[in-house]
Protein: Hydantoin racemase
Amino acid sequence: MAQPTCHIKIINGNTCQPMTANINASAQAIKFLNTEIITVQPQTGPESIESFYDEYLAIPGILEQIILDTSSDAFILACWGDPGIEAAREITSKPVVGIAEASLYMANMLAAKWSVVTTLHRVRDMVEKTIQKTGLTARCASVRTTKLSVLDTEQDRTATLDILIKASQLAIQQDGAEAICLGCAGMSGLEKQLEARLGVPVIDAVAAAVKMAESLVHLGKSTSKHLTYRLPEQKEIKGYNPHFQAQSFYP
Amino acid sequence: MAQPTCHIKIINGNTCQPMTANINASAQAIKFLNTEIITVQPQTGPESIESFYDEYLAIPGILEQIILDTSSDAFILACWGDPGIEAAREITSKPVVGIAEASLYMANMLAAKWSVVTTLHRVRDMVEKTIQKTGLTARCASVRTTKLSVLDTEQDRTATLDILIKASQLAIQQDGAEAICLGCAGMSGLEKQLEARLGVPVIDAVAAAVKMAESLVHLGKSTSKHLTYRLPEQKEIKGYNPHFQAQSFYP
Amino acid sequence: MAQPTCHIKIINGNTCQPMTANINASAQAIKFLNTEIITVQPQTGPESIESFYDEYLAIPGILEQIILDTSSDAFILACWGDPGIEAAREITSKPVVGIAEASLYMANMLAAKWSVVTTLHRVRDMVEKTIQKTGLTARCASVRTTKLSVLDTEQDRTATLDILIKASQLAIQQDGAEAICLGCAGMSGLEKQLEARLGVPVIDAVAAAVKMAESLVHLGKSTSKHLTYRLPEQKEIKGYNPHFQAQSFYP
Amino acid sequence: MAQPTCHIKIINGNTCQPMTANINASAQAIKFLNTEIITVQPQTGPESIESFYDEYLAIPGILEQIILDTSSDAFILACWGDPGIEAAREITSKPVVGIAEASLYMANMLAAKWSVVTTLHRVRDMVEKTIQKTGLTARCASVRTTKLSVLDTEQDRTATLDILIKASQLAIQQDGAEAICLGCAGMSGLEKQLEARLGVPVIDAVAAAVKMAESLVHLGKSTSKHLTYRLPEQKEIKGYNPHFQAQSFYP
Amino acid sequence: MAQPTCHIKIINGNTCQPMTANINASAQAIKFLNTEIITVQPQTGPESIESFYDEYLAIPGILEQIILDTSSDAFILACWGDPGIEAAREITSKPVVGIAEASLYMANMLAAKWSVVTTLHRVRDMVEKTIQKTGLTARCASVRTTKLSVLDTEQDRTATLDILIKASQLAIQQDGAEAICLGCAGMSGLEKQLEARLGVPVIDAVAAAVKMAESLVHLGKSTSKHLTYRLPEQKEIKGYNPHFQAQSFYP
Amino acid sequence: MAQPTCHIKIINGNTCQPMTANINASAQAIKFLNTEIITVQPQTGPESIESFYDEYLAIPGILEQIILDTSSDAFILACWGDPGIEAAREITSKPVVGIAEASLYMANMLAAKWSVVTTLHRVRDMVEKTIQKTGLTARCASVRTTKLSVLDTEQDRTATLDILIKASQLAIQQDGAEAICLGCAGMSGLEKQLEARLGVPVIDAVAAAVKMAESLVHLGKSTSKHLTYRLPEQKEIKGYNPHFQAQSFYP
Structure:
């Protein structure tokens, strides 16, 4: 039986266009033949997400990309931290996949323990909370932060690779990691080189999420509208465009 | 020694003005003599917070009330769920208190087990996640949700009281609760009547938070700027007013 | 770019041939075009797995299906309980997916809380341990066992459906489930009818695992051979055929 | 409205008088104007608490200070470990605050992770159990013990300061602490100097507890007498003074 | 090889003599031939332990029975709650066994899940904390409290049996218990009748502890004096007899 | 009263005969006078268990030793990892003790924190899962793996002792261990020498299990047949001898 085309919209959580292009390249390279992917970035929000402040200011713009969408079969939130994902699941019944959760599930099937290697030291608490939300804290060997900003990961790939290798080797040798999860969408595309150097599986979160979204679409699944993720209650929402008003979501 | 005046700004998480007035009344009634309290509501965001979607759209407006402030010694986030509190702690070094955490700490000092009695059934997962974030899940006897919307709690106090009594009695008799935490700022002011009827301590989260904020100010404490809560990195934030740009926070 | 054919071997954990046929039908119906699936059953082991005893006696036969394989790109363990999966990951570097873990990851992306609805009451502890192993216990609303034996689920589909509907409705109404995971490979194929009746997502574990296995293959991933899942040490293994001797796995 | 005077009795858990004086000085310096504080020490019990043995022998004398009291509105147990606090909550309906719990709640509102820096190495397990009892283990970066005895902390303030600085710096640099909780009442009064040297919030547990006790009194709260903390059953208690007999607590 | 006589002292936590006799009878009936058991009660403390207050007042008298002992090879704390056990382990290097922990270890080897059936409703929190301290909370199906006081269990054996049967049946039928732990030393001696009626293993905590103490003695084990359980520091302890002074423990 | 003879069968999990002899020697040395012990090894399975693969292939042979037994009062699974213990508890109502669980319970009564010192680095995950299954993870200071294979522990006792001393010292000095559990049956017999060198309790798991099995027999306890551990359902089990068919277990 021929399978119908599956349309996936990937939403870069950051407003940085080069990162959108990088994410898109990784996604296009890994998608199934009959998957159509478009990668977008929010109209509003920070260039990069490196603090809770950045994350919260990014969320309305991320949600807007879902609200205004009319044709996608599934959405991917492409920022490790899965910003606003519970709200995304409220405003659409299409599957919504976070790249953080997708990468951790993949890692869990390949290794007994894994580490997350990521950007600035200050994000440690954000990363730990994200892992906690998936429930997989006990499988996490460590979180290794670095001096890399999110934008660094895009702009100097060689230096980035070097820093990630060093941090990953520490995770493997000192913390007991048996696989590495790259904790930033900006690191997408480096996984093969890292894997060659490290000798353990390295998970690109964007690629993992593309596979998860394709899977949910082909399984014909929708987000549960039974309780937590039902449509938001209708009410006035001040200072946001009309399409943000919950009544716009109701049939 | 005469204690200096302590200025506290309470930020109603909702844009519903009558709730702001109710919160303010509770706060003024419980404050110390030399505390000055102003209660505000965000310029933007939903009338009431009853979903993750509502919560995330409320956060930028909540944070703006901190950004534009020049004179407060501490801030209170007056929505049970403590929306955006990590970001609030990044953008100011003044203490920030969430009403949820404050009420749970108070309950913990008064009872071996407590329940949270709150609004719509759909918020159960939000409430459980808030309790989880404080670390006090093991002390929670149950979360009892009701058919009350947030605005109901303001508009029909008699019916609200009735529903809260019934839900609380079930928590006490069936779940082992020995105290009740009211899980919505809109329920503020009903705690005395409930306590009289139930015979166990009933915690008004707004009042609890006022005491916590006063305490932190008098202790002379500031939020740690060492790692997680340091000022957000400077970068372009699209579609937000200039005062949202992180460079505006830097000295 | 044309994607290469992906060969997946599904190993029914039970030696019951009709269940193999049922699993195969579900898998063939959901696979991608360029996936080739064969479904097998062990040469040795119990007709059905309903106790720890059954499970442990099934494992050598399950592992043999991997040992003797020369052409598959990935393996699926098709018994909810993922019997012997850590050993399976030791003896091959090809991805190995358990249907239990796969179904729970899918459920986690669709619902805030889910329940597992499954066979005989005696398996409750086995099911709870399986959920614990994935780390997702906190997301599980309940385990609902029934009077259904594994073979019942194959032999009387109407009665099975009826019992599953009743158990699922209790999970939704009393336990707070927002999605249902079917906790037995024998229930594969009933998910659409159940979903229509229940109004919440119902996860067929076999279909979920097919998608996970395809995903891992297309991502080009191998099981980590760094520590826990490296090849078994070489030694004498008494009473097993020569192909079970670890030296047969070494290049 | 003028607020009525609030009377707080602080009970030094140790029978060492100079520590009582030090605790009192810290408390008097931080109290609100209309708070009256008296600080006492038990008639019986060890000079200092540095083992479970010390702690258990201290408890009857601590409880006696509550039993014989007729005028206080709240009690503070001034020994990090909150010795006998559940019993204290049984024998009075006045709020009882432990300095350990109070300091941890304050730390939780100021930092994402904190460490407890304390006395002799042997108390590590006691300290970990105290943190566990509050439920905040997941927020604790580390427990750093030292070679300081409790009496050392009183007798050589310069050496104490020095040792605490070194231990705190290790907690910050190696363990990820973003605030420091001083884990002994005898360290009260050193927090400002430590804060100046360390650059992160340092919590004096005595001061934190004074604020918590004032808060509970001004909120008009009583300990729940519903189940766990109801008055002890009446019975003969051998070898204790008549005022220890439970019937003396009954109205 | 002939085994040397093993001397065990059982310390009833309560000062109620008939309970001492009952405990002793159970212990004598189950001991090995070459075990000598004496059962004592404290000189000071409450008739029965039914609150945290009772427990803390009992501890000094319990510890005194260890301090004054010169000939025992091991000690058993015969009050479900294991009162003061950490202190007991500090003041002697002989093994100290709590009846609660002993009974839970035995239950864990006989059943996948067990319940504790015990006395007054108010002790629920105490019992849950005791289970938590052993680490076995996840194996506990439920705690079932009753209207039985500790002394009731001694005085009316028929009524006690009846109430325990009813509570145990609820634990088995509604909570999933597959064995029952009797949560009070006073219930010792009823386990055979209960087992006959319930059809699941019923653990008498006193008997379990006798076996554990004998085991530790025959294994030749001493309590670790390395850190937590080393001898208490020497210091003045006011209001206690000279034998309570720590220097009396030092060689 | 003269106690009846207690017959215990110890099942070495490995098929290595010298290890059986070593286990037997340890057991005979520690048993009570009226205990009769026989130590056997499976007819089938690996020489030593050092991977999940080894463990799963060992289990049928281990279970067979129980199935074919007609005279033992209790069984001991003598491989740290307690392989197949849930199944063992299903096929007999006689008590079944695992050496891992037995050693951890003993350690828990002697020390606040303990470490497991064991064989090859690759078994870390297996060991952690075994500890997790007992529920005692929070009491575990660390797992220290070494370069010792299981057979090494038998063949070169001097080198083994040396390596165990070094690993244990690291556990004590760096991880906070206050006792050591030897994590392999092959290490049985070295505990006295280790204890002398380390100065903390060292638990031989075989000896611990002998005491636990004797205890359960003398207490007259049987495994609960209520739910999880009831006899396996009757069904065809292909490729196994007739005595493996469940109907052979039924009366």
